[in-house]
Amino acid sequence: MTPDLMEEGARRLQKTLAPAALGQTESGGRAAGFSRVAVPGEVDVTHGRILYLEDVHVSFDGFKAINGLSLDIAPGELRCIIGPNGAGKTTMMDIITGKTRPDKGTVFFGSTIDLLRHNEPEIASLGIGRKFQKPTVFEQLSVFENLELALKTHKGVKSSMFFRLDSAQSDRLAEILHTIHLAGSVTRQSGNLSHGQKQWLEIGMLLMQDPKLLLLDEPVAGMTDEETARTAELFLTLKGKHSLMVVEHDMGFIRTISEKVTVLCDGSVLAEGTLDQVQADERVIEVYLGR
Amino acid sequence: MTTPTSPNLQLPAPPPLLTRGGWSAFIVALIVVCAVAPVLNLWVPAGSLFHLSDYAVALLGKIMCYAICALAMDLIWGYTGILSLGHGLFFALGGYVMGMYLMRQIGRDGNYQSDLPDFMVFLDWKELPWHWALSDSFVATLVLIVAVPGVIAFVFGYFAFRSRIKGVYFSIITQAMTYAAMLLFFRNETGFGGNNGFTDFKRILGMPIATPTMRMLLFVLTGVTLLGFFLLARWLVRSKFGRVLQAVRDAESRVMFSGYSPLPYKLTIWTISAMMCGVAGALYVPQVGIINPGEMSAANSIEIAVWAAVGGRSTLIGPIVGAFIVNGAKSWLTVTAPEFWLYFLGALFIAVTLFLPDGVVGLVKKLKAKLTTTKGAAQ
């Protein structure tokens, strides 16, 4: 090895380490890549990414639903996803939650968990909660029983047979009941709730799972203005503690909650930025208004 | 979260195994089965108004076996939303295991005075086939009564549920499996007595089988089993396990995204249900004195579903009531107007589907609710 090469190497190392020493990296200056133990099932967010999709492709019978999608979400971030119908928003959530297998691409939860190796229940247990576009609750069960089923605990057959709510879990359940404004309907059959209340119950079930990342598909569809405002308030309190990915069409709602908006179109990211930035984007205007 | 937790928010307590009224009814049923019926049949003289005839004992014993099947069907269909048209197979398997034991109990008293069962002598077989090896032991028979249907259901269910086969496809496959088994049992060389099956039983545990006391004993045993299974089913459905089953029925994708893997849940209840049917079959055979492949016919499995539907799905008492209503009507109609029975069964199923989606029990509940509201309005 010649001396000039060694000098060059030393200079490069200096360049990499300098920002870390000044605390300018996303992981707060920690030398994130070195000497950490990866704990199985534990989400590793030291690289500043809780969800990471790269070059994902999915096609259904030749139709390219997702086409080279790359997207990442930081821990504690609240990201809004917008896009015209058929842009691949729901398909993207299907991929993240294990419902659909991509033809190609990488999907990581934190920097160590490859989501493509897990099925739906495992992904849910890892800490990704999902709310469907159409509110999906267990209609024959009461509000209480719905939340109890979603509770984060052992989910095997035997532990379910002998399950009893302990006091910490009861407190948590009561707290969530208040959060979703259903404390007055504890024993009501959830099938009899209003549309907006069902949406809330489903959000409550997500919270019972105590997920690190929440995927919310049109959470305020069918809600009254007041309910929408309350939901926005709830999401803002969740931000920071959880990461949220919200798909919505209601621009007023997005304006209230968003910091960063991603526009999807034809299965890939068209634009990213604040709501004002993307709304000013020529291409975004084009796909929304059509030419 | 900043929302304050109200200390006085009452969360509902877990439901009791049975309510007070439920326990009283349960104990009354137990007394009727274990004390009243034997007294009325064995000690009240035949001419008396209160005498329970042998015919009635045989009929009720048979219907209680059917009620166990209906209860088992309710667990898998009513609570989990999986319609099985193969429960006749599990019933017949339990029956055949019992039948093999009863055949061996005949000993040398058969027509051919041989150690082997008559049909084997007739086929000119010299020794017992391998699968009869355990048939001499009563204990092994008791184990196999639940193990054979259980293992078959487990293996079949594992592959079906793992492949996420659902709804009508699952029903058709279970029906096909039952039909295939029937064809297999019809063949002489499989060693199950061909189309004649097993009959002409003489003894059970060395005691003669065709005595009034033995008949009563089997009747009581069936009744106690039915009541025991009812409690077991009640315990299952009122646990969180049971609520997960109902959740699988109503929104399986939500169950998965809540972190539950539906496969072990479905497999557990499916296997339990099959074992219950096996026990019902084993109690049925000594009471009716015959088991043949006809028990595996398509109609039998469908009838089990009809009992559950008529009585009321997803209530545990419903299917039991349904089994009594339909089979009571059957034994009455097949005597008075045999040619109309099938029309009646068809009409009943259509009527229940159209007008009574919750069955007889649902109707009673609705009437009760109506009565209380009109009472409330009158006051």
TrEMBL record, chain A:
InterPro entries the UniProt entry points to: AAA+_ATPase, ABC_AA/LPS_Transport, ABC_transporter-like_ATP-bd, ABC_transptr_urea_ATP-bd_UrtD, BCA_ABC_TP_C, P-loop_NTPase
Gene3D superfamilies in UniProt: P-loop containing nucleotide triphosphate hydrolases (3.40.50.300)
Pfam family name, one: BCA_ABC_TP_C
Any one GO CC term of the record: plasma membrane
Residue ranges annotated for the ABC transporter domain, each copy included: 51-291
PROSITE patterns assigned: ABC_TRANSPORTER_2 (PS50893)
Entry superkingdom: Bacteria
Listed GO MF terms: ATP binding; ATP hydrolysis activity
Keyword set, alphabetical order: ATP-binding, Cell membrane, Membrane, Nucleotide-binding, Transport
Protein name: Urea transport system ATP-binding protein
Source species: Acidovorax soli
TrEMBL record, chain B:
UniProt key word Membrane: yes
Gene Ontology molecular function: branched-chain amino acid transmembrane transporter activity
Subcellular location: Cell membrane
Membrane topology: Multi-pass membrane protein
Annotated Pfam families: BPD_transp_2
Signal peptide extent: none
The UniProt record lists the keyword DNA repair: no
Main location: membrane
Cellular compartments per GO CC: plasma membrane
Keywords of this entry: Cell membrane, Membrane, Transmembrane, Transmembrane helix
InterPro entries listed in its UniProt record: ABC_transp_permease (IPR001851), ABC_transptr_urea_perm_UrtC (IPR017778), LivM-like (IPR043428)
Protein name per UniProt: Amino acid/amide ABC transporter membrane protein 2, HAAT family
Upper lineage: Bacteria, Pseudomonadati, Pseudomonadota, Betaproteobacteria, Burkholderiales
